[in-house]
Amino acid sequence: MSFDPSEKVAFKAPAEACDAHFHVFGPADRYPYGSDQLRYAPPMAPLEDYLQLAAHLGLTRYVFVQPSAYGRDNSCMLDAMREVGVARCRGIVDIDEDAPDALLADFDALGVRGVRINYSPIHPFEAGLAQKMTPRIRRIAARCAELGWHLDFLLPGWLTTELMPLFKSLKLPFSMAHMGMNLAKDGVNAPGFRALLDLVNHGDRNAYVKLTGIYRMSKVPHFTDSDPLARALIDAAPDRLIWGSDYPHLSFGENSSVELFNLLARWTDDEKVRKMILTENPERLFGF
Question: Would the pTM of this model clear 0.90, i.e. be above it?
Answer without folding.
Answer: yes
